[in-house]
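Dear support,

I submitted the protein below through the web form. The confirmation email said the job was done, but the results page showed an empty box. After a refresh the structure appeared. I'm attaching both so you can tell me whether what I see now is the final result or a partial one.
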Amino acid sequence: MGESIPKPPADEYEVFVENFERVERGETFAAADGHKLVADDPFYPVLLSPYGYAGQFGYRGQYRGTVGQSSDGANSTSVNSLSSAQ
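What the results page shows now:
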């Protein structure tokens, strides 16, 4: 994943971005009691939630490519193996 995004003590939390959608440098992505959290560098929010976790908003992810089909037709869930019944 990436580094966690700490959640400061507050009564009210807000998240202004969508998970897995790039957050640009300088973009406000969350707030704690109205105090805005602004991205120092671009990142992809992963599991970001205002109330999902006690001590963090979620994680800063980085784009690593697209999961999809390979040139030989395999996809991310393909497995080449023999079962014990074969």
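Response: this is the final, complete result; the empty box was a page-load delay. The two ends are 37 Å apart (CA to CA).
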